[in-house]
């Protein structure tokens, strides 16, 4: 008996049936889709708040940390060919080795290149692409740059980029990263989220593939997770104020990380401006005091920001955020900048109060923290703990991940609960009572 073709198609992975990995779109292909290109050109025509500092830096001859990116973007926004030629001249130097920037210059600046320059830069980019295979699966920046290069070079490649893009999506993204995300294993370092967003934009713009669909729960929570993982107090730098993302090293904040964190949020809104999560993010972004004005951050600000997009006030967001998929827990006493803040992420437990970060050692217990109707505490022992609770929602940190626990609340029946990937147990307590709670891990 023959198996009907329809059944065979249903049994196969959906992406194997429909995805096309050859690039035939018209340039510019990278980040400057037609609507985005029109927006940046109109910002120049309007002499907008974001164009003015960008124009002042570039036309004033300021040194740009990413010259190919900055000059190429300025050329596309202003249509002044001299800046496109300047980006090309930079890309053809021996010192220009950044694959991502080389791809952007080749894609954006071809109209101002001579045939000889196209051949030289194309050959340079092909050689860099061939030598760019990442050694670690988590190297998102390099994978994104390889996708950029394949897309920019598509017309020069016999398979229009398929030999690079198909294994990148099927083997690396779906075969490794998506599996880790679904299992709750850290797979995307926070400081590489911006590279992920660039990859999402490039793949959707040129292949009509939305990589978010492979792990929708992760991407639905990403805008909120990213927003709440900043410390309450801003950091005053010379060029502008920064919101500082979580970090675990000693010393002052890394302002490059802070700039890329904001760039990632701007790119999230640009990718999906209709979702409620990104509308809160837009409300968070549109305060002019945080507009990036330095040589590194300003090109990202100009590229992605859309001040005409309405947003929702982040003051309406909950004070306690728990992501069971990642195990992250963030809580704050208010949305004011002097709030007390607690973060539990990737095995790290931090408190932020009085303008200072306190990182607690793994396994350390901290005093219970009340945030609204929630109580957050760290267990003293992983196998058993007891405490008194006077809040409707209780979050017990520092337990064993993916483990079953018996939970006994005074005057109630014993019940079983399971911790999330980060070892957090969520316990609901009857409203309006203070009670004792005992938690004990079940024997396997």
Structural write-up:
- The chain is α+β, with helices and mostly antiparallel strands and about 450 residues long.
- It folds into 2 domains: about 20-315, Glycosyltransferase (Alpha/alpha barrel); about 320-440, no CATH class.
- It is about 40% helix and about 15% strand.
- It is built from 15 helices and 15 strands.
- The strands form 4 sheets. Strands 3-4-5-6-7 form a 5-stranded antiparallel sheet, covered by helices on one side.
- Helix 6 runs antiparallel to helix 7 (about 100-110), helix 7 runs antiparallel to helix 8 (about 115-130) and helix 12 (about 215-230) packs parallel to helix 14.
- The longest helix is centred in the middle third of the chain and has 21 residues, at about 160-180.
- It is elongated.
- The two termini are about 45 Å apart.
- About 40% of the residues are buried.
- The model is unreliable at about 1-20 (pLDDT under 50).
Specify the number of helices.
15
In terms of per-residue confidence, which ranges show pLDDT below 50 for 5 or more consecutive residues?
1-18
Strand arrangement in the largest pleated sheet: 3-4-5-6-7
CATH architecture of the largest domain: Alpha/alpha barrel
Helical proportion? 40-55%
Largest sheet properties: 5 strands, antiparallel
CATH superfamily of the largest domain: Chondroitin AC/alginate lyase
Question: What number is the mean pLDDT?
Answer: 91
CATH topology of the largest domain, which one?
A: Glycosyltransferase
CATH class of the largest domain: Mainly Alpha
User: What share of the residues does DSSP label as strand, in percent?
Assistant: 15-25%
* Rg, Cα atoms, Å: 25 Å
The succession of helices and strands, N to C, reads HHHHHHHHHHHHEEHHHEEEEEEEEEEEEE
Sheet/helix structural class: alpha+beta
First and last CA, distance: 46 Å
What's the number of extended β-strand segments? Answer: 15
Described by the principal axes of the CA atoms, the overall outline is elongated
């Amino acid at each position: 008996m023959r198996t009907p073709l329809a059944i065979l198609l249903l049994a196969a992975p959906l992406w194997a049936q429909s995805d096309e990995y050859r690039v035939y779109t018209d340039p510019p292909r990278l980040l400057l889709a037609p609507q985005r290109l029109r927006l940046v050109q109109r910002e120049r025509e309007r002499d907008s708040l974001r164009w003015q500092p960008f124009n002042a830096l570039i036309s004033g001859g300021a040194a740009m940390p990413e010259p190919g990116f900055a000059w190429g973007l300025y050329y596309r926004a202003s249509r002044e060919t001299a800046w496109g030629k300047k980006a090309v001249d930079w890309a053809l130097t021996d010192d220009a080795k950044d694959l991502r920037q080389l791809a952007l210059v080749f894609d954006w600046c071809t109209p101002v290149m001579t045939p000889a320059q196209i051949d030289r830069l194309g050959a340079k980019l092909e050689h860099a692409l061939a030598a760019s295979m990442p050694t670690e699966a988590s190297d998102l920046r390099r994978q994104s740059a390889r996708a950029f290069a394949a897309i920019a070079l598509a017309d020069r490649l016999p398979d229009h980029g398929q030999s690079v893009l198909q294994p990148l999506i099927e083997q690396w993204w779906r075969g490794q990263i998506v599996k880790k995300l679904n299992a709750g294993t850290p797979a995307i370092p926070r400081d590489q989220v911006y590279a992920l967003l660039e990859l999402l934009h490039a793949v959707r713009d040129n292949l009509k593939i939305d990589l978010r669909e492979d792990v929708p729960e992760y991407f639905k929570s990403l805008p909120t997770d990213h927003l709440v993982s900043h410390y309450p107090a801003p950091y005053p730098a010379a060029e502008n104020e920064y919101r500082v993302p979580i970090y675990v090293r000693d010393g002052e904040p890394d302002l490059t990380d802070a700039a890329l964190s904001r760039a990632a949020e701007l790119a999230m809104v640009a990718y999906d401006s209709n979702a409620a999560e990104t509308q809160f993010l837009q409300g968070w972004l549109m305060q002019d005091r945080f507009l990036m004005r330095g040589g590194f951050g300003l090109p990202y600000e100009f590229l992605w920001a859309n001040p005409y997009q309405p947003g929702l006030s982040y003051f309406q967001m909950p004070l306690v955020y728990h992501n069971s998929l990642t195990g992250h827990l963030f809580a704050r006493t208010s949305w004011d900048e002097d709030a007390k803040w607690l973060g539990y992420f990737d095995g790290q437990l931090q408190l932020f109060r009085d303008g200072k970060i306190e990182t607690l050692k793994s396994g350390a217990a901290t005093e219970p923290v009340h945030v609204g109707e929630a109580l957050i505490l760290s267990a003293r022992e992983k196998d058993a703990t007891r405490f008194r609770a006077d809040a409707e929602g209780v979050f017990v940190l520092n337990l064993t991940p993916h483990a079953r626990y018996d939970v006994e609340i005074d005057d109630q029946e014993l019940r079983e609960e399971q911790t999330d990937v980060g070892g957090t147990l969520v316990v609901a307590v009857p409203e309006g009572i203070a009670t004792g709670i005992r938690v004990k891990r079940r024997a396997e």
